[in-house]
Structure formats: structure tokens, C-alpha cells
Amino acid sequence: MTVKVFVDGQSGTTGLEIHQRLSEYRSLELLDIDPADRKDPIKKRAVLNAADIVFLCLPDDAALESVALIDNPRTKVIDASTAHRCHPDWVYGLPELSPEQRSAVAQASRVAVTGCHAAAAILAIKPLMQAGLLNADRGLVLQSITGYSGGGKAMIADYEDHAGQMASPRPYGLQLRHKHLPEIMRYTGLTTTPIFVPIVAHYYQGLSVQVPLQRQWLAQSADIAQVHAAMTAYYRDEPGINVLPLSADSGLVDGFFDIEACNGTNRVDLALHGTGDQMVILSRLDNLGKGASGAAIQCMNLMLGYPEWQHLSL
Description:
By secondary structure, the protein is an alpha/beta fold. The protein contains 9 helices and 15 strands. Strand 5, helix 4 and strand 6 (110-113) form a beta-alpha-beta unit. The relative contact order is 0.15.
């Protein structure tokens, strides 16, 4: 049976990536709308309600407007914006979050895809919370570094047109109210807002979140081997989550952590480094893959009953 799919906002970075991935499916019919009609609510409503699956690759306000136009009960929606990630009526599009989450995504008609920084942070922190090694009120400091493609078309153009002026890494979000914080707290169970400092650097794609830990913060002063065991056990049955071995060179190339190692995949790597009293979890993913379009396609596969990893590389 042919499934009709519409990408609302296909001219943006994520929309283009999703559209390209969808073209690999023979069972899908891609719907389109004339660019001149995209802001016509009558014509927009018609194409939205004709689709079996709608991807929203829009700013938050525009995503809310598009959802309000959908009245076909058979139309399923996958929203890549921030608008619905913490909404109680939407399922969070991170199947690896828990054994129940994959089933919830598969049965959902409304799925909110994760933020890129958020996915990396949540997947690093969740096993420790689940194992009781980390208290919910522990104040964490998270740092994330990402390629400039994470900023969308405008930032890509800025970097490519003014490369010499943006050669050094640039911290941002220094009011400490980054839009991914609410989902990080909601889906890890943290009750104290982490201090989260993202950095954009002069390379195209790839993202890593670092989660530093003091042993004294952990239940029963858990050591690095216990933390690694908790991570390994939590993701034992997850083919898309690669917990790297506990060793001094885990995930390193010539002593450096390669942030781009997951590029072109839908895989997440988790590495743990440290000493007896201090340790750091490093979580990396492709911000355009598992951090955006790849995650959306993974959710679509589950929602349509397709093999979860169809047309996705691990």
C-alpha cells in the first residue's frame, strides 16, 4: 500500500534531509505544494489532510499553526520543532529512552522529535538515573559542541560566507535558558536545571555533549566501573546505542575525542573517561542524523510498521 507523505518546511536543513531520505522508499508517495500556496490556509489544509504522515520542519509558531489545520484522524504527525516535545499528548521521539518508549512511538499519531543536544544529554544521563546512581536534584554542568549545520540555513550561510571571521569556537545561549533544557529535565527526571553551555565550532556536522561527574555525587560513591556497567546494562539491547569499552583510549584518536565519528549514521556513541574521583561521559551523534532527520525517519519507520532501521545506517 502506498503511504502519502508531506514534508511541511522541506526547504530548511532538516526538511531537505528528510525529503532526501524519503526518496529512497518505494512505498511512499511524496506530496508537494506550490511554493506560492504554502501560506494559503485552504490549500495548506488540503495537502496536510491528504497525507498519511506529515513531517513538520518549521519554527515553533508555524508548527502549531500547521497542526491546527489537521482534522483527518488518520493523519500522523512527526514534529521536528520544539513546540511539542514536552506536551503531554505527544510522544517523545526517542525510542531508546526506555523499553516502553519504542512501543509508544510505534502506536502514536503525534510524535515530537528530540533536540540534538537534548538527545545526546538524555542518553548519557538516563542510565544513571534509572540505576539510582544519580539523585534527581543533583545540579549538573553540561557542555556541548556542535558543527554549524545545527544552526540551520542562515548559520550555514554565515559560516560559509564569512569563514575567516568565525574561525574560533563560539559559546552561545549564555543566559542559560537554552530551548533544549525542558526536555532534558523531563526525560531524564532531573529536578534541578543543569547549567548547559553549547558551543558552535567551524566544522559542518557532528555533536558531542560532555557530562562531568564527581564520584562523591553518586550513590554509595559509585566508581567508574559501576557507572560504565549501568550504561552498558541499560543499552544492552539497543543496536543504535554504542557504549564504548572502558579504557584509557576509548573513542579517542591520537588522544582526542573525535566528535565527527558518528556522522552519516543514526548511531549514538557513549564513552566514559576519568580517574578514581572524577569522570566524564562523552555522548556523540550526528546532529543532522540522530539529532534531526535520522531520528524523524526512525520514528516514521516505527509508526508505519517498517523495520526500525530501514534506510538508516548504524
